[in-house]
Amino acid sequence: MVNKGDHVHMFEPYYTQYINHIEFAGADCVTSPMYTNDKGEWFFDFDHFEKSLDENSKLLIITNPHNPSGKIFTEDEIARLSAILDKWPQVTVLSDEVYFHLPFDGRKLVSFANYSESNWKKTVNVFSAGKMLNCTGWKIGWAIGPKDLIHQAFFVHEASVFCPNVPGQYALSKSLEQAFTQPYEGYKNYFAFVQSVFQAGRDACQELLSYSQNIKFKPTVVESGYFMPVDISGCEEHIPEKYFLKNVNYEDDEKTLVKQMQFPDNFERVPLDFALCRYLAVEKGVSCMPVSNFCLHESKTPLHNYIRIAICRPPDQFLNPSMIEKFKTL
Ligand SMILES: Cc1ncc(COP(=O)(O)O)c(C=O)c1O
Protein backbone atom coordinates (compact mmCIF):
# COMPACT_ATOMS: atom_id res chain seq x y z
CA MET A 1 0.00 0.00 0.00
CA VAL A 2 2.84 2.38 0.77
CA ASN A 3 6.52 2.68 -0.08
CA LYS A 4 9.53 4.58 1.16
CA GLY A 5 8.87 8.32 1.33
CA ASP A 6 5.06 8.01 1.05
CA HIS A 7 2.97 9.81 3.65
CA VAL A 8 0.62 7.89 5.92
CA HIS A 9 -1.91 10.12 7.69
CA MET A 10 -3.51 9.47 11.06
CA PHE A 11 -5.42 11.38 13.66
CA GLU A 12 -3.55 11.75 16.94
CA PRO A 13 -3.87 10.05 19.42
CA TYR A 14 -3.61 6.87 17.33
CA TYR A 15 -3.46 3.14 18.12
CA THR A 16 0.28 2.71 18.75
CA GLN A 17 0.91 -0.36 16.56
CA TYR A 18 0.29 1.68 13.39
CA ILE A 19 3.60 3.46 13.87
CA ASN A 20 5.53 0.18 13.69
CA HIS A 21 3.79 -0.76 10.44
CA ILE A 22 4.48 2.64 8.90
CA GLU A 23 8.15 2.50 9.89
CA PHE A 24 8.41 -1.08 8.62
CA ALA A 25 7.19 0.08 5.21
CA GLY A 26 9.70 2.97 5.24
CA ALA A 27 6.89 5.53 4.94
CA ASP A 28 6.50 8.78 6.88
CA CYS A 29 3.79 9.46 9.40
CA VAL A 30 1.78 12.70 9.28
CA THR A 31 -0.65 13.32 12.13
CA SER A 32 -3.60 15.67 12.63
CA PRO A 33 -4.88 16.42 16.12
CA MET A 34 -7.97 15.36 17.98
CA TYR A 35 -9.23 17.57 20.78
CA THR A 36 -12.02 17.76 23.36
CA ASN A 37 -14.52 20.50 24.17
CA ASP A 38 -15.59 21.48 27.68
CA LYS A 39 -18.18 18.67 27.72
CA GLY A 40 -15.38 16.17 27.13
CA GLU A 41 -16.58 15.29 23.61
CA TRP A 42 -13.87 14.35 21.12
CA PHE A 43 -13.37 15.98 17.70
CA PHE A 44 -11.07 15.48 14.72
CA ASP A 45 -9.23 18.51 13.31
CA PHE A 46 -10.34 18.07 9.70
CA ASP A 47 -8.97 21.50 8.64
CA HIS A 48 -5.51 20.43 9.75
CA PHE A 49 -5.94 17.10 7.99
CA GLU A 50 -7.02 18.74 4.73
CA LYS A 51 -4.04 21.11 4.79
CA SER A 52 -1.62 18.25 5.50
CA LEU A 53 -2.49 16.35 2.32
CA ASP A 54 -0.23 16.61 -0.73
CA GLU A 55 1.02 14.54 -3.66
CA ASN A 56 3.06 12.31 -1.27
CA SER A 57 -0.06 11.28 0.66
CA LYS A 58 -0.85 7.62 0.02
CA LEU A 59 -2.76 6.27 2.97
CA LEU A 60 -5.10 7.45 5.72
CA ILE A 61 -5.56 5.16 8.72
CA ILE A 62 -8.79 5.73 10.64
CA THR A 63 -9.99 3.86 13.69
CA ASN A 64 -13.76 3.75 14.01
CA PRO A 65 -14.74 3.38 16.83
CA HIS A 66 -11.55 5.08 17.84
CA ASN A 67 -8.91 3.87 20.28
CA PRO A 68 -7.93 5.52 22.64
CA SER A 69 -10.75 8.13 22.59
CA GLY A 70 -13.76 5.80 22.27
CA LYS A 71 -15.22 8.18 19.67
CA ILE A 72 -17.45 7.04 16.82
CA PHE A 73 -17.31 9.11 13.60
CA THR A 74 -20.66 10.83 13.07
CA GLU A 75 -22.24 10.66 9.63
CA ASP A 76 -21.33 14.36 9.11
CA GLU A 77 -17.71 13.60 9.94
CA ILE A 78 -17.65 10.69 7.49
CA ALA A 79 -19.19 13.01 4.87
CA ARG A 80 -16.53 15.66 5.54
CA LEU A 81 -13.71 13.13 5.36
CA SER A 82 -15.13 11.66 2.14
CA ALA A 83 -15.35 15.10 0.51
CA ILE A 84 -11.74 15.88 1.47
CA LEU A 85 -10.46 12.56 0.16
CA ASP A 86 -12.39 12.84 -3.11
CA LYS A 87 -9.92 15.62 -3.97
CA TRP A 88 -6.95 13.26 -3.45
CA PRO A 89 -7.80 10.08 -5.37
CA GLN A 90 -4.37 8.50 -4.85
CA VAL A 91 -5.10 8.14 -1.09
CA THR A 92 -6.22 4.69 0.10
CA VAL A 93 -8.03 4.37 3.43
CA LEU A 94 -7.39 1.72 6.03
CA SER A 95 -10.41 1.66 8.30
CA ASP A 96 -9.70 -0.23 11.51
CA GLU A 97 -13.11 -1.26 12.83
CA VAL A 98 -12.10 -3.78 15.45
CA TYR A 99 -14.64 -2.27 17.89
CA PHE A 100 -17.50 -2.07 15.36
CA HIS A 101 -19.71 -4.32 17.52
CA LEU A 102 -19.53 -2.05 20.56
CA PRO A 103 -21.41 1.25 20.06
CA PHE A 104 -22.80 2.38 23.44
CA ASP A 105 -26.04 4.20 24.32
CA GLY A 106 -27.83 3.01 21.17
CA ARG A 107 -25.39 4.77 18.82
CA LYS A 108 -25.03 3.62 15.21
CA LEU A 109 -21.73 3.15 13.45
CA VAL A 110 -21.35 4.60 9.93
CA SER A 111 -18.55 2.76 8.23
CA PHE A 112 -16.44 4.91 5.89
CA ALA A 113 -16.51 2.24 3.17
CA ASN A 114 -20.30 1.90 3.28
CA TYR A 115 -20.89 5.61 2.86
CA SER A 116 -20.43 5.71 -0.93
CA GLU A 117 -19.30 3.66 -3.91
CA SER A 118 -16.15 5.78 -4.24
CA ASN A 119 -15.30 5.20 -0.56
CA TRP A 120 -15.74 1.43 -0.94
CA LYS A 121 -13.31 1.35 -3.87
CA LYS A 122 -10.53 3.00 -1.85
CA THR A 123 -10.96 1.29 1.53
CA VAL A 124 -9.63 -1.76 3.30
CA ASN A 125 -11.61 -2.56 6.48
CA VAL A 126 -9.97 -4.59 9.22
CA PHE A 127 -11.62 -6.57 12.02
CA SER A 128 -10.36 -8.60 14.94
CA ALA A 129 -11.78 -11.79 16.40
CA GLY A 130 -9.77 -11.12 19.53
CA LYS A 131 -11.64 -7.87 20.07
CA MET A 132 -15.06 -9.13 19.00
CA LEU A 133 -15.01 -12.19 21.20
CA ASN A 134 -13.08 -10.72 24.13
CA CYS A 135 -10.08 -12.92 23.58
CA THR A 136 -7.34 -10.41 22.75
CA GLY A 137 -4.22 -12.37 21.99
CA TRP A 138 -5.76 -14.80 19.53
CA LYS A 139 -4.36 -12.60 16.77
CA ILE A 140 -6.94 -13.65 14.26
CA GLY A 141 -8.64 -11.05 12.16
CA TRP A 142 -9.86 -10.38 8.66
CA ALA A 143 -9.91 -7.65 6.06
CA ILE A 144 -12.72 -6.70 3.69
CA GLY A 145 -12.33 -4.50 0.63
CA PRO A 146 -12.25 -4.37 -3.18
CA LYS A 147 -10.27 -7.10 -4.89
CA ASP A 148 -7.36 -4.95 -6.08
CA LEU A 149 -6.64 -3.69 -2.56
CA ILE A 150 -7.23 -6.96 -0.73
CA HIS A 151 -4.90 -8.67 -3.17
CA GLN A 152 -1.99 -6.77 -1.56
CA ALA A 153 -2.88 -8.22 1.83
CA PHE A 154 -2.01 -11.74 0.66
CA PHE A 155 1.62 -10.74 0.04
CA VAL A 156 1.94 -9.07 3.44
CA HIS A 157 0.28 -11.98 5.17
CA GLU A 158 2.55 -14.57 3.68
CA ALA A 159 5.63 -12.49 4.48
CA SER A 160 4.61 -11.74 8.07
CA VAL A 161 2.51 -14.27 10.00
CA PHE A 162 2.59 -16.82 7.11
CA CYS A 163 -0.11 -18.94 8.68
CA PRO A 164 -2.39 -18.09 11.61
CA ASN A 165 -3.42 -20.51 14.32
CA VAL A 166 -5.75 -22.89 12.49
CA PRO A 167 -7.67 -24.33 15.49
CA GLY A 168 -8.43 -20.73 16.44
CA GLN A 169 -9.75 -20.05 12.94
CA TYR A 170 -12.05 -23.09 13.15
CA ALA A 171 -13.29 -22.01 16.57
CA LEU A 172 -13.98 -18.56 15.22
CA SER A 173 -15.80 -19.75 12.11
CA LYS A 174 -18.07 -21.88 14.32
CA SER A 175 -18.81 -19.16 16.85
CA LEU A 176 -19.11 -16.07 14.65
CA GLU A 177 -22.56 -16.79 13.28
CA GLN A 178 -23.81 -17.89 16.70
CA ALA A 179 -22.52 -14.69 18.24
CA PHE A 180 -24.79 -12.73 15.89
CA THR A 181 -27.84 -14.99 15.86
CA GLN A 182 -28.20 -16.70 19.28
CA PRO A 183 -29.54 -15.01 22.41
CA TYR A 184 -26.91 -14.72 25.15
CA GLU A 185 -27.43 -14.18 28.92
CA GLY A 186 -30.86 -12.63 28.31
CA TYR A 187 -29.62 -10.36 25.50
CA LYS A 188 -30.53 -10.51 21.81
CA ASN A 189 -27.03 -11.81 20.99
CA TYR A 190 -23.49 -12.00 22.36
CA PHE A 191 -22.61 -8.51 21.10
CA ALA A 192 -25.60 -6.89 22.80
CA PHE A 193 -24.43 -8.58 26.02
CA VAL A 194 -20.83 -7.33 25.68
CA GLN A 195 -22.02 -3.81 24.85
CA SER A 196 -24.09 -3.69 28.00
CA VAL A 197 -21.26 -5.06 30.21
CA PHE A 198 -18.69 -2.56 28.88
CA GLN A 199 -21.14 0.33 28.99
CA ALA A 200 -21.86 -0.54 32.63
CA GLY A 201 -18.06 -0.81 33.14
CA ARG A 202 -17.69 2.73 31.76
CA ASP A 203 -20.39 4.07 34.09
CA ALA A 204 -18.97 2.23 37.12
CA CYS A 205 -15.47 3.50 36.36
CA GLN A 206 -16.80 7.07 36.20
CA GLU A 207 -18.38 6.60 39.60
CA LEU A 208 -15.18 5.10 41.02
CA LEU A 209 -13.18 8.13 39.84
CA SER A 210 -15.58 10.44 41.66
CA TYR A 211 -14.44 8.95 45.03
CA SER A 212 -11.01 10.52 44.68
CA GLN A 213 -10.49 13.26 47.28
CA ASN A 214 -7.78 15.37 45.66
CA ILE A 215 -7.21 14.42 42.05
CA LYS A 216 -10.03 15.73 39.87
CA PHE A 217 -10.51 12.99 37.29
CA LYS A 218 -12.71 14.27 34.43
CA PRO A 219 -13.83 11.37 32.21
CA THR A 220 -14.29 12.24 28.53
CA VAL A 221 -17.33 11.11 26.54
CA VAL A 222 -16.85 7.46 25.57
CA GLU A 223 -19.13 6.26 22.79
CA SER A 224 -17.69 2.79 22.28
CA GLY A 225 -14.86 0.37 22.80
CA TYR A 226 -12.65 -0.94 25.56
CA PHE A 227 -11.24 2.32 26.93
CA MET A 228 -12.01 5.67 28.53
CA PRO A 229 -9.68 8.68 28.40
CA VAL A 230 -9.81 10.84 31.51
CA ASP A 231 -8.71 14.48 31.81
CA ILE A 232 -6.29 14.79 34.73
CA SER A 233 -5.37 18.48 34.33
CA GLY A 234 -4.09 20.15 37.46
CA CYS A 235 -3.23 16.99 39.43
CA GLU A 236 0.57 17.68 39.59
CA GLU A 237 0.60 18.64 43.26
CA HIS A 238 -0.93 15.29 44.28
CA ILE A 239 1.79 13.14 42.67
CA PRO A 240 5.08 12.61 44.53
CA GLU A 241 7.94 14.48 42.86
CA LYS A 242 9.99 11.31 42.23
CA TYR A 243 7.55 10.21 39.52
CA PHE A 244 8.43 13.31 37.49
CA LEU A 245 12.18 12.63 37.48
CA LYS A 246 13.57 11.49 34.16
CA ASN A 247 15.87 8.49 33.75
CA VAL A 248 15.85 7.65 37.44
CA ASN A 249 14.95 4.26 38.80
CA TYR A 250 12.33 5.44 41.20
CA GLU A 251 10.67 2.15 42.03
CA ASP A 252 10.69 1.31 45.72
CA ASP A 253 9.87 -2.30 45.13
CA GLU A 254 12.56 -4.26 43.28
CA LYS A 255 10.00 -6.74 42.08
CA THR A 256 7.81 -4.17 40.41
CA LEU A 257 7.39 -4.66 36.71
CA VAL A 258 7.02 -0.95 36.01
CA LYS A 259 9.95 -0.05 33.77
CA GLN A 260 11.55 3.30 33.08
CA MET A 261 10.41 4.81 29.82
CA GLN A 262 13.15 6.54 27.83
CA PHE A 263 12.08 10.07 27.00
CA PRO A 264 13.74 12.22 24.33
CA ASP A 265 16.37 14.78 25.36
CA ASN A 266 14.03 17.71 24.93
CA PHE A 267 11.77 16.38 27.75
CA GLU A 268 13.05 18.00 30.95
CA ARG A 269 10.67 16.07 33.16
CA VAL A 270 8.39 13.06 32.91
CA PRO A 271 5.08 14.33 31.47
CA LEU A 272 2.06 14.53 33.77
CA ASP A 273 0.18 11.56 32.29
CA PHE A 274 3.22 9.27 32.58
CA ALA A 275 3.92 10.49 36.12
CA LEU A 276 0.36 9.79 37.25
CA CYS A 277 0.31 6.35 35.59
CA ARG A 278 3.59 5.40 37.29
CA TYR A 279 2.30 6.61 40.64
CA LEU A 280 -0.97 4.69 40.27
CA ALA A 281 0.82 1.52 39.16
CA VAL A 282 3.58 1.54 41.77
CA GLU A 283 1.66 2.79 44.82
CA LYS A 284 -1.95 1.78 44.16
CA GLY A 285 -1.64 -1.30 41.93
CA VAL A 286 -3.86 0.40 39.32
CA SER A 287 -2.65 0.23 35.76
CA CYS A 288 -3.60 2.94 33.24
CA MET A 289 -2.06 4.23 30.03
CA PRO A 290 -0.69 7.75 29.43
CA VAL A 291 -2.52 9.17 26.39
CA SER A 292 0.61 10.97 25.13
CA ASN A 293 1.93 7.47 24.50
CA PHE A 294 -0.52 7.46 21.58
CA CYS A 295 1.05 10.63 20.15
CA LEU A 296 4.35 11.32 18.41
CA HIS A 297 7.17 12.52 20.71
CA GLU A 298 7.45 15.59 18.48
CA SER A 299 3.69 16.20 18.52
CA LYS A 300 2.55 19.82 18.94
CA THR A 301 -0.58 18.59 20.79
CA PRO A 302 0.66 15.63 22.84
CA LEU A 303 -2.35 15.32 25.21
CA HIS A 304 -0.23 15.08 28.36
CA ASN A 305 -3.36 15.84 30.41
CA TYR A 306 -5.12 12.55 29.75
CA ILE A 307 -4.80 8.97 30.92
CA ARG A 308 -6.64 6.01 29.38
CA ILE A 309 -8.45 3.50 31.59
CA ALA A 310 -9.67 0.08 30.42
CA ILE A 311 -13.44 -0.18 30.96
CA CYS A 312 -13.80 -3.64 29.40
CA ARG A 313 -14.75 -5.39 32.63
CA PRO A 314 -17.83 -5.91 34.75
CA PRO A 315 -18.90 -3.03 37.02
CA ASP A 316 -18.08 -4.88 40.25
CA GLN A 317 -14.40 -4.82 39.33
CA PHE A 318 -14.56 -1.02 39.65
CA LEU A 319 -17.12 -0.56 42.40
CA ASN A 320 -15.89 -2.88 45.13
CA PRO A 321 -14.76 -1.88 48.64
CA SER A 322 -11.04 -2.35 47.91
CA MET A 323 -11.07 -0.17 44.77
CA ILE A 324 -13.24 2.48 46.40
CA GLU A 325 -10.85 2.66 49.39
CA LYS A 326 -7.89 3.07 47.02
CA PHE A 327 -9.54 5.89 45.12
CA LYS A 328 -10.52 7.66 48.34
CA THR A 329 -6.79 8.01 49.06
CA LEU A 330 -6.12 9.80 45.78
C1 LIG B 1 -7.66 -0.10 17.24
C2 LIG B 1 -7.07 -1.46 17.34
N1 LIG B 1 -6.78 -2.15 16.23
C3 LIG B 1 -6.25 -3.39 16.28
C4 LIG B 1 -6.00 -3.99 17.48
C5 LIG B 1 -5.35 -5.36 17.48
O1 LIG B 1 -6.25 -6.33 17.78
P1 LIG B 1 -5.75 -7.85 17.98
O2 LIG B 1 -5.89 -8.13 19.44
O3 LIG B 1 -6.65 -8.67 17.14
O4 LIG B 1 -4.33 -7.90 17.52
C6 LIG B 1 -6.28 -3.33 18.67
C7 LIG B 1 -5.96 -3.95 19.97
O5 LIG B 1 -5.94 -3.32 21.01
C8 LIG B 1 -6.84 -2.03 18.59
O6 LIG B 1 -7.15 -1.33 19.71
Supply database-style keywords:
binds pyridoxal-5'-phosphate, Aspartate Aminotransferase, domain 1, 11 helices, 7-stranded mixed beta sheet, single chain, 330 residues, 4-stranded antiparallel beta sheet, alpha/beta, globular, Aspartate Aminotransferase, domain 2
What features would you describe in this structure?
By secondary structure, this protein is an alpha/beta fold. The chain folds into two domains: 7-176, Aspartate Aminotransferase, domain 2, CATH 3.40.640.10; 190-328, Aspartate Aminotransferase, domain 1, CATH 3.90.1150. 34% of the residues lie in helices and 16% in strands. The chain has eleven helices and eleven strands. The protein has a seven-stranded mixed beta sheet with strand order 3-2-1-4-5-6-7, sandwiched between helices. β1 (7-12), α1 and β2 form a beta-alpha-beta unit. It is globular, with a radius of gyration of 21 Å. The mean pLDDT is 92.
What is the end-to-end distance? 47 Å
Please list the strands of the largest sheet in the order they lie side by side. Answer: 3-2-1-4-5-6-7
Low-confidence stretches: none
Mean pLDDT: 92
How large a portion of the residues is in β-strands, by DSSP E? 15-25%
Coarse structural class: alpha/beta
> What is the ordering of alpha helices and beta strands?
EHEEHEHEHHEHEHHHEEHEEH
How many separate structural domains?
A: 2
Characterize the main sheet: 7 strands, mixed
